[in-house]
Inverse folding.
DNA sequence: CCAAAAGTGTTTCACGTACACCCATGC
DNA sequence: GCATGGGTGTACGTGAAACACTTTTGG
C-alpha cells in the first residue's frame, strides 16, 4: 500500500463548550457568516495547523473563540462521513470543554463572528451534523460526571454543597436527596471545608468547600473510585 | 477563514482486534514490511478511501486483514501528533473490534504481510505510537465490559457460565466468586438456558447459555442497567 | 473409584434510601 | 417576626460478599 495514493480530506477540530451559569447548563455557539449554513448556529472550530497537535488546535480555537484557556478539555469523537460537508470531504475531531462562567469572564463574541450561550434545553437547529455531536457531548458529560470528578470544572474554586448538588441535578436531570448527597460527598474525603462562608445572603450563610485534587489523586491510586 | 489554507495530513484508520481463544485475550498484529519500523509489529490499518466513511474504512481493513466481518467495532480515539509518523503528518482514527476466535476462523496471515495473534501480557514493542493505542483500547475494553454486555462478542453463541466468568476474570484481571457471579447473571434475565449441554467432557457436563439481545434491549429501554 | 469441573443457599454486613425539623441571616 | 435556604441523624431494606459441599461424567 502506497502512501500518497488518495486525495486528502480537510481536517478540522470542533469544540463543544459547556458552561454553567447560575441557573443552567449552557453551550457556546457561533453564528455562521458564510455558506453553507450561513446564518445557522454551529459549534466553534476550525482548521488544524500543520505544526500543532489536535489537542493544541482545540485549545487554540477555544482560546480564540472564548478567551479562556487552561480548562478541562477532552477528545469526544471523530466524524468523517463523506457528505457531512457539502463542499468537500471534511474530517472533524471533536472535543468538549468545561468552563466555569463565574471565574473566567467568557467573551461570547469574538472577531467578526457572532457568538452566544444557549441553554441546553433551548437549542436552535445547528449547521452540519453539529446537533448530533452536541448530543454525544451531552451524553458523555452526563455519564462521565458520575464516575469522574469533572463536575468541579464547571464550578468556581469555592462552592457550596448546594451548588454542587444543583450542578448534578441539572446535568443528570434527576433530583438528589440533600442529606444523602452531602453524606456521600463528605465521606469521600476529597472536599475541604473552607473557613469562609457566604456573605450578604438573606438566609443562613452556607459554608464554602473546595475540591482537593491532590487528595483525590492519592486516593485514586489506592483504589478509590468516585461515583455519584 | 478559508477552506484550502493548509497542506493536508494523511488520514488512516487502525484497528485493535481483540480475540479470545480458549485461554487468553489476544490481539492481532501485522509485521511491517517497509520502513519506517520495518520488521516491527503494528496494528492493522490503512488509508481511508475518498468514498467511504471512517467506520466503513475500519470494517474494510478488518475484513482484508482478518477475513471477518459483522463483528463488534467501535471508535476508540484519534491520534494526530505532528511527529508520530517520521515521514509526514498522519492522522489516525483508531477503532477496536471484538471477534470470537472459535466461530470465525480468523486467517492470521493475509497477502504478503505476516500477521499473528499475541497474548496481551506478552506483547512486542510496536511501531509508531501503537503501544499507547493498544493500551487505550485495553482500558476501554476493561471498563466497558463492566457496564455494557459486549463480553458476549468474544464468546461463541453458545457458552457455559464458566466460560463467561473466565472471560471476565481474564479481561478485568480479578477472580469472581462462582456462586455470586451466576446468581447475578441469571437474575439479570438476559441469558437463556439452552437445552444443550457439553459433550465428551471428563466431568459433569455444563449447560449452554446464549445472550438474549432482544431481551436486553427491551430491558434497557425500561431502565435496566447491565453491570458486573 | 478417582479426578475434574458443574451446580447450588444461607448468613452477614455495608450501603443506599427515605424522611422532618431546627438554625442562621437579611429585610 | 417572617421568609429563605443551610444544615443535620436515624431506621429500614436491598444487594454485595463470603463461604463448602454434593453431583455428574470419563477414564
Amino acid at each position: 500500500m502506497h502512501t500518497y495514493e488518495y486525495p486528502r480530506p480537510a481536517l478540522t477540530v470542533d469544540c463543544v463548550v459547556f458552561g454553567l451559569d447560575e441557573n443552567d447548563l449552557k453551550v457556546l455557539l457561533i453564528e455562521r457568516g458564510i455558506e453553507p449554513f450561513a446564518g445557522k448556529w454551529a459549534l466553534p472550530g476550525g482548521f488544524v495547523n500543520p505544526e500543532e497537535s489536535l489537542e493544541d488546535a482545540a485549545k487554540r480555537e477555544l482560546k480564540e473563540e472564548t478567551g479562556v484557556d487552561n480548562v478541562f478539555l477532552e477528545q469526544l469523537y471523530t466524524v468523517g462521513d463523506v457528505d457531512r460537508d457539502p463542499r468537500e470531504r471534511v474530517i472533524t475531531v471533536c472535543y468538549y470543554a468545561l468552563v466555569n462562567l463565574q471565574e473566567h469572564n467568557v467573551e461570547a463574541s469574538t472577531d467578526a463572528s457572532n457568538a452566544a450561550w444557549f441553554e441546553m434545553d433551548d437549542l436552535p437547529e445547528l449547521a452540519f451534523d453539529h446537533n448530533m455531536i452536541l448530543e454525544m457531548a451531552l451524553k458523555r458529560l452526563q455519564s462521565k460526571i458520575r464516575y469522574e470528578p469533572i463536575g468541579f470544572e464547571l464550578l468556581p474554586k469555592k462552592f457550596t454543597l448546594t451548588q454542587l448538588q444543583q450542578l448534578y441535578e441539572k446535568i443528570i436531570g434527576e433530583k438528589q436527596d440533600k442529606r444523602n448527597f452531602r453524606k456521600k460527598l463528605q465521606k469521600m474525603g476529597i472536599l475541604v471545608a473552607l473557613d469562609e462562608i457566604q456573605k450578604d445572603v438573606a438566609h443562613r450563610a452556607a459554608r464554602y468547600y473546595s475540591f482537593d485534587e491532590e487528595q483525590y489523586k492519592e486516593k485514586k491510586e489506592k483504589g478509590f473510585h468516585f461515583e455519584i
Q: What stands out?
A: The mean pLDDT of chain A is 93. Chain A touches chain B at residues 1, 3, 5-11, 46-54, 75, 77-82, 87-89, 91, 93 (CB under 8 Å). The radius of gyration of chain A is 20 Å. The first strand of chain A starts at residue 10 and ends at 20.
